[in-house]
TrEMBL record:
Protein name: Probable 2-(5''-triphosphoribosyl)-3'-dephosphocoenzyme-A synthase
Family matches, as Gene3D superfamilies: Triphosphoribosyl-dephospho-CoA protein
HAMAP family tied to this protein: CitG
Organism of derivation: Enterococcus wangshanyuanii
Xref: InterPro entries: CitG (IPR002736), TriPribosyl-deP-CoA_syn_CitG (IPR017551)
Length: 295
């Protein structure tokens, strides 16, 4: 692979990551989540906040790819490099959004996945569009990068004076959140999201991804929901999402789907619940859909 080809490919893939954040933010209607029409269950952010956040993170997407491309060593060593750069990206995001956490989880996942892709580009192991085997290989390498993540991040928590929300959830309930997704090779994407999108080669991308959002909300361990409403609220949202899916016709019209989702949105806003973990996975789903040429 020539240097020019490399640069072009890195630029294209980093643009895919940016487009994925923008697509997720623009998708409407999303229950409890920010979109161009509604701020969902949020009173501190809106659609513009998400555009600013995406812009702040965009330069780092290329950095993550380049870290992987240049790395010589173990997957675990690459993770340490990526985490340091990811923390810088998070600082830029928070500076741009005036301290509002819009994309912390998404930044974490894109950092890992883009570094994995960059590493696999070293020996021309990947080309666009990705095959399903290419996608699996990226997830496998990401899993290797994060094999020690849970043990390292959640060790000695009982001795810490101040715990993050994620640490509290792990201590109280054993929930591992997005760290667990990464360490397991993103099963929500491999087993739910991507098989769904590969089967639904419908030209109506908006409808496909709204249906996928419901499916993710029904199955994902969403720490955002748990932090806001507790275990019971998260389980109730999962149940409601599953019921919404079951109540839809086999191939619902966009009007039917919108009506259901707008009503669902009102219910979550009333209870101040936002499925941010599902939203991050939706953006990642769109990213891999671009890589595989599904959209």
């Amino acid at each position: 692979m020539t240097q020019t080809t490399n640069l072009e490919l890195l630029k294209k893939i980093s643009n895919f990551a940016l487009q994925s954040l923008l697509f997720e933010a623009a998708l409407y209607p999303k229950p409890g989540l920010v979109d161009p029409i509604s701020s969902g269950a949020h009173n501190d952010m809106d659609y513009g906040t998400f555009l600013d956040s995406s812009q702040a993170l965009a330069p780092f997407f290329t950095d993550y790819l380049e870290l992987g491309l240049a790395h010589q060593g173990t997957p675990e060593a690459l993770f340490q490099k990526v985490r340091s750069t990811g923390q810088l990206a998070e600082q830029e995001m928070l500076k741009k959004t005036k301290g509002i956490n819009t994309h912390k989880g998404a930044n974490f996942s894109f950092a890992l996945i883009l570094a994995s892709i960059g590493n696999m580009l070293q020996n021309e192991q990947l080309s666009l569009p990705f095959s399903e085997a290419d996608t699996r290989a990226v997830f496998d390498y990401t899993k290797q990068m994060t094999s020690e993540l849970i043990a390292r991040d959640f060790s000695n928590l009982t001795k810490k004076k101040q715990l993050t929300n994620g640490e509290k959830l792990y201590l109280d309930h054993g929930f591992t959140g997005i760290r667990g997704e990464a360490a397991a090779g993103y099963p929500s994407l491999q087993e739910t999201a991507l098989p769904f999108l590969r089967q639904r080669r419908s030209p109506n991308e908006r409808k496909n991804f709204l249906l996928l959002l419901l499916s993710l909300m029904a199955t994902v361990e969403d720490s955002n929901l748990i932090n806001r409403g507790g275990i019971g609220a998260w389980q109730q949202v999962q149940k409601m999402a599953a019921q919404q899916t079951q109540s839809l016709s086999e191939d619902p019209s966009i009007d039917e789907l919108e009506r259901k989702l707008v009503a669902f949105d009102r219910a979550l806003i009333q209870d101040y619940l936002s499925p941010g973990g599902s939203a991050d996975l939706l953006a990642l789903s769109y990213f891999f859909s671009q890589l595989e040429g599904l959209v």
